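Protein data:
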Amino acid sequence: MTSAVSIRKAEHDDARRLATIGYLAWETSILPLLTETPGMRASEQRRLAAAVHETLERIIVAEVDGVVVGWCSRARGRSYIPFLFVAPEFQNHGIGRLLLARMEAMLELEGADRVHLETPADNVRAVRFYEHQGYRILALRPDGRPDHQPFMSVRLEKLLHPFMGQVTDTE
């Protein structure tokens, strides 16, 4: 990929595209780990659309040539990243790394000294990605929602380096 990636806050008009990216990423990386049941895909589409709607003001997006290709969100009031998705055709180009680094920098500026996230344990590619970004595994726990079968989830943590000094406005 030779085009520049820009990162910005999500806007209301991005919502449908963000839910689509989340679903396509889920479909290619998480669905193969599950036993598909009737209605599972539609349920996941609704869940992701609701998640985008509920967290839109805490989402940053990555754009390539003016097209949103990935997004990352944070939880309200804590240093937790519930969602990081990159459109499958744009994966392995550093976009996820850029989104994650920007979200971590935002958390550091707010004084956070660590950040947490979770991913399915069987999604080895995601676990390795996070480990390469400096995250360490804290715990393995059962996960799953009523409309999906249970699976194991990995909770990861990364120590941050919050800015603790004074900001001065001198020349």
